[in-house]
Each structure stands twice: as structure tokens, then as C-alpha cells.
Amino acid sequence: MDEVIDPSVTIKVIGHQWYWSYEYSDYSNNIEFDSYMVPASDLEPGSLRLLEVDNRVVVPVNTYIRVLVTGADVLHSFAIPSLAIKMDAIPGRLNQTGFLVKRPGVFYGQCSELCGANHSFMPIVVEAVSMSKYLN
Asked: H helices of 12-130, where?
């Protein structure tokens, strides 16, 4: 019932100890990157401690997004409360969820499954932008 029919963007999320990897596979050249928490010593003024990452997930507004979630090593949980997303990342299993962002903004989340010593250092940042900015 929760399946997104004909999504415009598909993002694969892979939980690792202790960072997230993302893959945009809808395009001719696959875009893949890792996302690590920015250490407190490297934060810009106004950035949120323990929530800012070096590489944000960028999505267009008013577009259906499908998210495929898995784990590479242990159980993780991909959670962004303000987007109503919480999906377990289980090694060997591919879970699916979807969302639609109605306004531009930055949305923060974290791993919400105890996954080891650095569990609290796995933030998630989704930045929703206009379609023209997304395409650039």
C-alpha cells in the first residue's frame, strides 16, 4: 500500500558503521557518495552540532521520491521525523519507502537503531530544492 507508483527519483540508502552511502541510479551516470558527520571542530557558525554532514542528499520539491534502504554490516534505521520517514536498514534485505517534499528546506534525521559505539554519529540531512536547482 505504501509503494510509490512511478517515482521520479529513486535513491538507494546504505547504512554502514558509522556513516550513510547514497546512490542515485536513475541517471545515465550513477551518482554515488558517502555522507559523514562533520566534526564539531569543522562546523561553520550556525551549523547544528551532531546533525550536519559533509554531503547532503538533495531532492526536488513536489516530486515523488522512492527510497530503497539496506544495511552493509549491522542493523541501522534511516529516520527523518519531519518527513515522516523511519525505515530499518537490514543487511541482506532491501526495504522501500517514499516521500514527497512540499516546500524547499533542510530536513535532519539520524540513525535510530542502536548499531554500535558510534551510533549517535550517523546524522542524515535531506535538502529539498526547486527542480531547476536540482537539475543543475
From this structure: none
